[in-house]
């Protein structure tokens, strides 16, 4: 038996079930699984469970993964009551991420829920959906300083030395939160002055800086350009030092992306945006 096969045998199966895309089930389920770092999990997402018959097939699939040594975990955000009732017949550990909380909200509001997954992930609010699509288009156009057009429309301008996480953070904020995000790379010419780069200078009230550690940045850059001056520890240290000084001079809030997920970085940025006055 290979090491990979041994790991699969010992891993606890975890299923994410949903009537829609499964994004919520996967996100919430992984948040819970993340609290058990010493346990190995083998995860699988099963989205678009639309009928009782499909639910029966899913239960058969899930139950087949149960052994005397391991009990699979099943995380569900299925909203339909009939389908959910069928899924709950599994002999595995069923964690209902939707139903129990929905019942509580119904009691508090004295209103029955629609039990419609479309109200969660569908295009129920057309204007909000269109705004999010525009935010994604904007963020793609303004990735890595490719375009300086309409910067005044940006909700946020991310600045950082190369490979500090500007692009994934920008896209996450656009996709998940509908923010128009421009990101601007700090290059060596920008470090020759204590001023903000000219194109973004008028928008200091919406700038947020990213940093990293020299070791982490050097590692990431080495994967892209191994053996280059760009990836040396000395160059990474210099750029990060100058970037941090620039942020301090202009009171630009910042966070290090070295040991944070994109979700965590985004949460810090959103909290800061809520607290900052805009001119």
TrEMBL record:
Q: Which reaction does it catalyse?
A: [pyruvate, water dikinase] + ADP = [pyruvate, water dikinase]-phosphate + AMP + H(+); [pyruvate, water dikinase]-phosphate + phosphate + H(+) = [pyruvate, water dikinase] + diphosphate
The molecular function terms in GO held by this entry are: ADP binding; ATP binding; phosphotransferase activity, phosphate group as acceptor; protein serine/threonine kinase activity
Q: Name one Pfam family in it.
A: Kinase-PPPase
Instruction: State the InterPro entries in the record.
Output: Kinase-pyrophosphorylase, PSRP
Write out the entry's keywords from A to Z: Kinase, Nucleotide-binding, Serine/threonine-protein kinase, Transferase
Where exactly are the transmembrane stretches of this chain? none
Q: Where does ADP bind?
A: 160-167
EC number(s) per UniProt? 2.7.11.33, 2.7.4.28
The record, for NCBIfam families, names:
PRK05339.1
Q: Which family does it belong to?
A: Belongs to the pyruvate, phosphate/water dikinase regulatory protein family. PSRP subfamily.
Q: What does this protein do?
A: Bifunctional serine/threonine kinase and phosphorylase involved in the regulation of the phosphoenolpyruvate synthase (PEPS) by catalyzing its phosphorylation/dephosphorylation.
From the Swiss-Prot or TrEMBL record, give the protein name: Putative phosphoenolpyruvate synthase regulatory protein
Q: Which organism is it from?
A: Barrientosiimonas humi
